[in-house]
UniProtKB/TrEMBL annotation:
Fe cation binds at H102, H141. GO terms for molecular function: DNA-binding transcription factor activity; transcription cis-regulatory region binding; zinc ion binding. This is Transcriptional repressor. Belongs to the Fur family. Its cofactor is Mn(2+); Fe(2+); Zn(2+). Zn(2+) binds at C108, C111, C149, C152. Keywords: DNA-binding, Iron, Metal-binding, Repressor, Transcription, Transcription regulation, Zinc. Binds 1 Mn(2+) or Fe(2+) ion per subunit. The keyword Transport does not apply. SUPFAM superfamilies: Winged helix' DNA-binding domain (SSF46785). It comes from the Bacteria. It comes from Butyrivibrio fibrisolvens. GO terms for biological process: negative regulation of DNA-templated transcription; regulation of secondary metabolite biosynthetic process. The keyword Lyase does not apply.
Length: 153
């Protein structure tokens, strides 16, 4: 049994989290399940390359094709169960599961390390919209802060 500690009150198994978040109509293939588990275990967003390398470790070098990783990530993104951020360029796209509590990051422009912010300070986004957008339905948001970490300054 694998636990996900993102819940502050009690740990939730990855399987239970997956059950709750898996979108209808998306098949649970071995490749998708393996990638989901890697993302669920991650403490920070991962690139497709990092996910591919983790799969290679778990499969003893007999990993999936890199294109399979991208297709699975695209399926997850289309289904809304992960967040993709392009941190400076699209070649550095990072992926993380979209859970109940979202995160924002400060990103070092030199080493590309991502540092999670303690809180979301955007507040009620509906109040920030212009008056002529009262019927706009906000489904999410993303915020990234760029600069240099202490190691790279």
């Amino acid at each position: 049994m694998r636990l996900n500690m993102s819940c502050k009150i009690h740990a939730e198994t990855v399987e239970r989290q997956m059950e709750r978040n898996w979108p209808e109509g998306i098949k649970k293939t071995k490749q998708r399940l393996d990638i989901y588990h890697i993302l669920a275990d991650a403490v920070k967003p991962l690139t497709a390359t990092e996910i591919y390398e983790e799969l290679s470790k778990k499969e003893g070098g007999n990993s999936y094709a890199f294109s399979t990783v991208y297709r699975c990530l695209q399926t997850f993104e289309d289904a809304g169960i992960l967040t993709k951020s392009t941190a400076v360029t699209s070649e550095n796209a990072m992926y993380e599961l979209r859970l109940a509590q979202h995160r924002h990051y400060a990103i070092c422009l030199k080493c590309k390390e991502r540092f999670p912010l303690r809180t979301c300070f955007l507040g009620d986004l509906n109040k920030m919209l212009p008056a002529n957008m009262d019927d706009f339905e906000i489904t999410g948001h993303q915020l990234e802060i760029y600069g240099y970490c202490a190691k790279c300054k």
